[in-house]
Amino acid sequence: MINILIVDDQKHIRDGLQAMLSQFPIELNTLYSAASGIEALQLIRQHGIQLVITDIRMPDMDGLALMAQTKEERIKVEYLIISGYSDFAYAQKAIALGAKGYLLKPIKREDLQASVEHVWQEIQTRQALSRNMEQISRLARETDRKELCMFMQGAANEEAWILHTERQNPALWSNYRLCLLREERWINQPGASSTHSMESIAYRVYGKQGCLFLQRSPFLIMAVDAAVDTEALPAALKAEQIDAIAAMTGRKQGLKELPGSYTQVMELYRHSYLFPDKRCILQAHIERLEQQWQLPHEELYALFQLIGTNNSGKITQGISMIFHKDVLQRYHIGYTQQLCRAVVQMLEEYERVIRPYMGEEALDMDCLRNLFDYPGIRDYIQALQQQLLRLNHFYYEYKCSYRNKQDLNEAIRYIHESYHKPLDLAMVSNHVSLNYAYFSNLFKKNVGKGFAEYLRDVRLDKARKLLAETEHKIVEVAGMVGYDSYKSFTRAFRDVMNMQPTEYRQRMRQKVESERHYQESKR
């Protein structure tokens, strides 16, 4: 699409040119018109005009002056000149100023169309070439950046390549820092990354020549001018409301120091987890950290002794004490990493014990293996605490289940041993030292029937055996199985068996007699 400006002090000429141009088979975007060079200059400055068709002779500012002014202002625009025979000398000057051709008055339709199409074709060719060159240049820059990134991360390269790369930006490589920017984002936080915004801010702080981006993911890593104050970039990020942690190495000289600088900046980045309140981590912040330590094994043991108890508050407090920032900030980051591994290992050992009882439930150990998967140390400690409390819940349920099973077994044993005595729920719950209501619910949940129903069934089972195998009177049987009255026994027996105890005894005797006759007949 092309934008064309027609410039002529005579309105009928402007209108005629507009009419012809609007009928041409070209990708015309917008047609502008101006009655003088001064008016045309304003339009050229304000709009993206690619082609100006202008008369040479005009009041105030003629066509030549307009061409000279846009050339001086370095505005890229093409010109077609309109002139009469007597203005041929002016037309020659216009050609010298870069005009793509001139049209003699009166202007012929076919001449105008041919000239405009020729200029438009030239503009399109130049734009395509510019795009290709820009793409080639961008690919070359990206290739150079990837090579630099690989060299930074430890890949070997030739001495000639190092010297050549240094010469491409000698001012930067003679005095630079390596800077890592880690944007602070919550887990699952929506929204796009601010990488491009951070790049723009870095260019503004250091200038195009003082900032070279080497890596964009997962962190933004760049070589920056060491002469610029280390607080300048964090302050600029804060002003733009971008939450990012910066890690900056000391001053470096020469490209050969780049791999060592990368190791150093990654070490600083890891230490940024110890200092979540600092926006910029420098070598000075970690130089005095202790390099030797002893893990708090006793505190860890005491913490895990709480697992399976009703002490979630103490567990939370124990985690906070073990991972207290005053302790972590005394030591190299390796202490924190080793502490995390120790806690995860103990979690795994405890989980193995109760895993068969957990069903489909499980702890998420994988989420705790790498501290640096989290936005910060606080987020990791929160996730660790959550898994520890889940383990405590599972363990508590497991221990309660085991303890309840033992209590129930003892209660059932006691019932079968004491069914013939006066017995009620309170006596059995006291025997196993459980709360009356709790024992009642526990018994029904695990046995499938209430205590009274279970005791009745045990007594009646014993009664049926006595009725079938002995000659004891019914009233005697009732007392022998724990009933305090003949009436209550017979009522309970009838409700379950749908017959009286005497009828049951008769049937059992008839059955025995029938079996005896059958056996005799087979002899």
UniProtKB/TrEMBL annotation:
The family database entries (SUPFAM superfamilies) matched by this protein are listed as: CheY-like, Homeodomain-like
Can you say what this protein is called? Response regulator
HTH araC/xylS-type domain location: 409-507
Q: Which PANTHER family match?
A: HISTIDINE KINASE-RELATED, TRANSCRIPTIONAL REGULATORY PROTEIN HPTR
Write the lineage as a comma-separated list.
Answer: Bacteria, Bacillati, Bacillota, Bacilli, Bacillales
Please indicate if the UniProt record lists Transcription as a keyword: yes
| Alphabetical list of Gene3D superfamilies matching this protein | 3.40.50.2300, Homeodomain-like
Please provide the record's keywords in A-Z order.
Cytoplasm, DNA-binding, Phosphoprotein, Transcription, Transcription regulation, Two-component regulatory system
Q: Name one Pfam family in it.
A: HTH_18
The main place the protein resides is cytoplasm
Residues that the record marks as modified (4-aspartylphosphate) are D55
Q: List each copy of the Response regulatory domain by range.
A: 3-120
